[in-house]
Every structure is written in structure tokens, then in C-alpha cells.
Amino acid sequence: MKENSDGYVRADQIDLKSLDEQLQRHLSRALTLERKRKEEEQEERERARPSWEIDPSKLLIKSVIARGTFGTVHRGVYDGLDVAGQTSRCFFFSQAFQQSLAGHFQKMLMS
């Protein structure tokens, strides 16, 4: 492209094929970077989650089954499976209790 002294370019001097190729390379690079960023974010979320905690984006809570002193039991669907899950009113669990829960839930998921 030749630019005159006024900063204008004649339309017949623009190499559209070259511009199209540059745009394709740029978009491809941008999409690749975006995809990689999303994958890294997903991996980080999975790493940060304790083993007993599920991915909330896969859970659909439907109805309340029962309420108790320590929490509420709900019916729902997790990753396509019918499930019942408890939300707890306790804000603190000891490390030993968390590990016990993790083992219990892992056994349930594998059966």
C-alpha cells in the first residue's frame, strides 16, 4: 500500500488478500489464547476445590426433602444423575471431619 502525503491510500492499491490473511492469523491466535486461558481457569477451579466438594455448575437443585438442625437435604440432578444432597448450616468443619466426608462421598460415587 502506498500512502500519499495526506495520509490517504488509493483503494486499488490495497492488497485485500494479504489483509485477509493477517486478520485470519490474528483471530486464530486470539481464539487460541482465549481457549487456553479458559482451560487454565477450569484447571485452577478444579485444583482449588476440596475432594468432597462438587462442581456447582453441574448441579440442579429441585426440591427440599427435609430440614434439620445442621442443614437441609435437597433432591436434585448432578451431571445427569438423580441425587440428594445436604447443605450445611455449620460454617466450620475440622480437617478430620472433612476427610471423613470426602471418603464417604467417594465411596458413594464409586458404587
Automatic annotation (TrEMBL):
Gene Ontology molecular functions: protein serine/threonine/tyrosine kinase activity
Annotated keywords: Coiled coil, Kinase, Transferase
Superkingdom, natural source: Eukaryota
Its EC number(s): 2.7.12.1
Residues forming coiled coils: 16-43
Listed name of the protein: Dual-specificity kinase
